[in-house]
Design brief:
The complex is a heterodimer of chains A (243) and B (300).
Chain A: E1 7-12, H1 16-42, H2 59-70, H3 76-87, H4 94-122, H5 134-145, H6 160-184, H7 190-195, H8 199-227, H9 229-237, E2 239-241
Antiparallel strand pairs in A: 1-2
Helix pairs in contact in A: 1-4, 2-3, 5-6, 6-8, 8-9
Chain B: H1 40-45, E1 53-56, H2 57-85, H3 93-117, E2 154-157, E3 165-167, H4 169-172, E4 177-185, E5 191-200, H5 201-207, E6 216-221, E7 226-231, H6 232-235, E8 241-246, E9 249-250, E10 260-262, E11 277-281
Parallel strand pairs in B: 2-11
Antiparallel strand pairs in B: 2-3, 4-5, 5-8, 6-7, 6-11, 8-9, 8-10
The chains are: A mainly alpha (243), B alpha+beta (300).
Chain lengths: 243, 300
């Protein structure tokens, strides 16, 4: 028997600012999507000629009406508004949506700045930089997730698929911010609008960055939980157990 | 099991990686030459594995508990904030008022940013007449009938002369006619490129100067009961027009006959139609959509 206190070996994993930015982004992105769709309702980016029966021009409202019909919503108006009533703050909420969107947009940029400072202060940005062999390893990871192959040997902090995802998310964030400003201030920031080709080009990019965030976030949550407690805990505490 | 031919297994002995035992003893020999310094690019881009640290397990447990308690407090605060902010739970007048103040502060902050971005010397993008797109009539209320046109006039108050001016369309059209093709951006998200003709607001300000302390123009339509506030910096911008023409023809009722404001550096809702009165004021006047939860400044 020894008098020594039990000890554990750990490694630093996430900088405090990275962790703060990560968790702040959860409510921020939800608020941005919910308020953003409330704005989108007023003038959808993707429109078709008005439907002869419903008068709808909006693919998203159509998709919502399709779902609503199949889950037993019988009222035609409720069908038409189903998507926006469930995934935005509602129809005819433009002023409210805009105010929420501006407020959370500034918070989003603030969280983004925290994240950038965090990855450079800790040097952890190096872990997400793409490197040779990433494409092959990313496909190996996809095969592994589809139960078609073995887990490739990963010696770095992240596997190639994670690297690709974690490096693209800040790019999507930057695109969302840049296209947002291009739409918000097309006169004073005309050069930014031109970078997206046109005003509607910026709207298109802005709309699709939302789907990029959704496409990232859903598997991200499942995979982080599947990876285990150590991974989830490390985003709260900053450290990971050393094997 | 498949019996496909495979590469002959390489009988390589598995290297046994042993942690080098670092002796604390003083090495008498000459220290080995230091390894070559990695290049700057290498140091900036190549991932290094973090140094493992040995820590006291009890301290670590305490820190972890603290971090998760803080995390839980953050989650609880966020949930409470979301509950307060969500529009569907506006049951009490007091909550509504405090929420409105809070959201309007975000709006005011964004307006301040917009005002800081504004430069009177920056022209908005102009287009060719070939780029013109259909322009929607977005009247909030029904489009007015033509009855008012025969008695229409524009009243100016708050002038340096101290007297009001009542101008006919002919009076206005004595000022130089300008054409411009600019984009109108609606707060709803759609936009249209339109060819406008009319007089410069700046020319009207020069011909009928406002009193020297005036900073604002209250623009009103007695026809549609619509009103917007315009700061005089924007009014003096060379691309701010009092338009009489659209697509080379006099304005139609749908587009604000006989005179409307065209301010391409502001959102479409500031481009008031069927203008009948301009008052020059020291303090910011009321604005129709600002009273309904939208921005006051609306600078693009």
């Amino acid at each position: 028997m020894t008098d020594e206190a039990p000890q554990r070996t750990i490694v630093a994993k996430h900088h405090l600012l990275v962790r703060l930015a990560h968790w702040l982004n959860v409510p921020i992105l939800i608020a941005m999507i919910v308020s953003g769709l409330g704005i989108y309702w007023a003038s959808p980016v993707h429109q078709h000629p008005p439907d002869r029966v419903t008068g709808s021009r909006d693919y998203l409202a159509d998709a919502g009406a399709f779902v609503a019909r199949h889950i037993g919503v019988s009222d035609v108006k409720a069908q038409r508004e189903w998507f926006y009533n469930h995934f935005s703050i509602g129809v005819f909420q433009l002023a409210q949506s805009l105010r929420l969107h501006w407020m959370f947009a500034y918070l989003f940029m603030f969280a983004g700045l925290m994240y950038v400072i965090g990855i450079f202060r800790s040097g952890s940005y190096r872990a997400v930089l793409p490197r040779r062999g990433d494409v092959r390893e990313a496909f190996a990871m996809i095969r592994y997730y589809l139960r078609l192959g073995k887990h490739p040997v990963v010696t770095s902090k992240y596997n190639a698929l994670q690297r690709g995802a974690y490096a693209s998310v800040p790019v999507f964030g930057l695109l969302a911010i840049a296209s947002g400003w291009a739409m918000h201030k097309p006169a004073q920031l005309g050069w930014l609008e031109r970078m997206f080709g046109s005003y509607d080009g910026a709207r298109l990019v802005h709309f699709w960055t939302m789907w990029a965030f959704i496409a990232f976030a859903i598997p991200h949550v499942f995979l982080a939980i599947a990876d285990g407690w150590d991974t989830v805990r490390s985003m709260v505490t900053g450290w990971s157990a050393h094997e | 099991m498949s019996e496909e031919p495979q590469d002959p297994p390489v009988e390589e002995p598995v290297p046994v990686v042993e942690e080098p035992v670092i002796e604390e003893a003083i090495i008498e020999e000459e220290p080995p030459p230091p390894p070559p310094k990695p290049s700057l690019l290498h140091r900036l881009t190549i991932e290094t594995s973090p140094e493992p640290r040995v820590v006291d397990a009890a301290t670590l447990r305490r820190q972890t508990r603290r971090d998760f308690l803080l995390f839980g407090a953050g989650v609880a605060a966020t949930a409470a904030g979301a509950w307060w902010l969500l529009p569907k739970h506006l049951d009490s007048v007091a909550v509504r008022a405090s929420k409105e103040r809070f959201l309007n502060r975000a709006l005011t902050f964004d307006d301040d940013v917009a005002e800081a971005l504004y430069s009177p010397n920056r022209a908005v993008r102009t287009y060719s007449r070939r780029d013109v797109t259909p322009l929607r009539n977005n009247y909030h209320n029904p489009t007015p009938g033509p009855a008012y046109l025969s008695t229409w006039s524009l009243t100016l108050t708050g002038l340096a002369s101290g007297r009001d001016a009542v101008l006919s369309l002919n009076d206005l059209q004595r000022l130089a006619h300008r054409d411009q093709v600019t984009r109108l951006v609606c707060v709803e998200g759609w936009s249209a490129i339109a060819w406008w003709g009319g007089i410069r607001f700046a020319d009207l300000l020069a011909a009928y100067p406002p009193h020297p302390r005036a900073k604002w123009a209250a623009m009103e339509s007695g026809v549609t009961d619509y009103y917007v506030s315009i700061d005089l910096d924007t009014a003096r911008h060379p691309q701010s027009l009092l338009a009489t023409h659209h697509d080379g023809a006099p304005l139609t009722l749908a587009h604000g006959a006989p005179l409307r404001l065209v301010v391409p550096m502001k959102l479409g809702l500031k481009n008031i139609k069927a203008l009948t009165k301009i008052s020059y004021l020291e303090n910011e006047p009321r604005d129709f959509w600002a009273e309904r939860g939208y921005s006051k400044y609306d600078g693009l």
